[in-house]
């Protein structure tokens, strides 16, 4: 069974009288352990697709199964629950909380999920080690370089051990060299067995994945 199964997924937005077909009959699978890039130009539907894959939104038509669960049938609270268990999000702009230390940023989602303190300490330490930033755990985001901030954000995404890491333009706010370091980190995490999906407009980023899913005008291009 694929980890992600999209079949005939469509999503519309209404702009006045005209419906915008943000996703039009999109079908693809992602298997456990794959490293996939979803690539397309601005306006092609990447964010819409990311929101559906990440259970932030549901399709208007079609089937989306996440690790065997039919997402369209879930209620809002169940959607949040499957999102928290299955997906680790990484964003272009890091989205770290500025007043919290690196450690506290990584810990926060675990606290929300009710993970007890001792177990949190083990998970946070492990996650910070996996991005090689345990020695920066007391730093606040502003005291870290951009690349380090993104690595903290990756540690936060990994702390709960989700099967999928979903990264939206993870190198978009970084210079080329630092962005490449983030890609190398994602490759190492992939080599350790994590399923990784990177959403990008950048062919130089997408070409580093095992497989590219190209999207244009809301459709998969083959
Ligand atoms: P990308 O992430 O590739 O830039 P999006 O998924 O954001 O693409 O957008 C796909 C299409 O849907 C575009 O035509 C965009 O203008 C439209 N769209 C996205 N979000 C909305 C919205 N909330 N309301 C109306 N149209 C939207
Ligand atoms: P990089 O070599 O990854 O580009 P920097 O040269 O920006 O990183 O930072 C080197 C070290 O200095 C980092 O490990 C970081 O912890 C620390 N550092 C960076 N910026 C600040 C700052 N504004 N205040 C305190 N420490 C900082």
Automatic annotation (TrEMBL):
<dbReference type="InterPro" id="IPR017911">
    <property type="entry name" value="MacB-like_ATP-bd"/>
</dbReference>
<dbReference type="InterPro" id="IPR015854">
    <property type="entry name" value="ABC_transpr_LolD-like"/>
</dbReference>
<protein>
    <submittedName>
        <fullName>ABC transporter ATP-binding protein</fullName>
    </submittedName>
</protein>
<keyword id="KW-0813">Transport</keyword>
<dbReference type="InterPro" id="IPR027417">
    <property type="entry name" value="P-loop_NTPase"/>
</dbReference>
<dbReference type="Pfam" id="PF00005">
    <property type="entry name" value="ABC_tran"/>
</dbReference>
<dbReference type="InterPro" id="IPR003439">
    <property type="entry name" value="ABC_transporter-like_ATP-bd"/>
</dbReference>
<feature type="domain" description="ABC transporter">
    <location>
        <begin position="4"/>
        <end position="222"/>
    </location>
</feature>
<dbReference type="InterPro" id="IPR017871">
    <property type="entry name" value="ABC_transporter-like_CS"/>
</dbReference>
<keyword id="KW-0547">Nucleotide-binding</keyword>
<keyword id="KW-0067">ATP-binding</keyword>
<dbReference type="GO" id="GO:0005524">
    <property type="term" value="F:ATP binding"/>
</dbReference>
<dbReference type="InterPro" id="IPR003593">
    <property type="entry name" value="AAA+_ATPase"/>
</dbReference>
């Amino acid at each position: 069974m694929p980890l992600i199964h999209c079949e005939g997924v469509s999503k519309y937005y209404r702009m006045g009288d005209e419906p915008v077909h943000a996703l039009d009959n999109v079908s693809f699978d992602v298997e456990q352990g794959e490293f996939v890039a979803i690539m397309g130009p601005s306006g092609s539907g990447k964010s819409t697709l990311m929101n559906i894959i990440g259970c932030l939104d549901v399709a208007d038509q079609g089937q989306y199964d996440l690790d065997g669960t039919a997402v369209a049938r879930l209620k809002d609270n169940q959607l949040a629950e499957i999102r928290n268990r299955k997906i680790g999000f990484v964003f272009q702009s890091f989205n770290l909380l500025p007043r919290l230390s690196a450690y506290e940023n990584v810990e926060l989602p675990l606290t929300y999920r009710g993970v007890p303190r001792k177990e949190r300490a083990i998970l946070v330490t492990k996650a910070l080690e996996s991005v090689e930033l345990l020695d920066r755990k007391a730093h606040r985001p502003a005291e870290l370089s951009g690349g380090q901030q993104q690595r903290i954000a990756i540690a936060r995404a990994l702390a709960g051990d989700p099967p999928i890491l979903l990264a939206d333009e993870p190198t978009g706010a970084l210079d080329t060299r630092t962005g490449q370091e983030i890609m190398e980190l994602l490759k190492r995490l992939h080599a350790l067995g994590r399923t990784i999906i990177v959403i990008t407009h950048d062919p130089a980023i997408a070409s580093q994945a095992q497989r590219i899913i190209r999207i244009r005008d809301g459709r998969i291009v083959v």
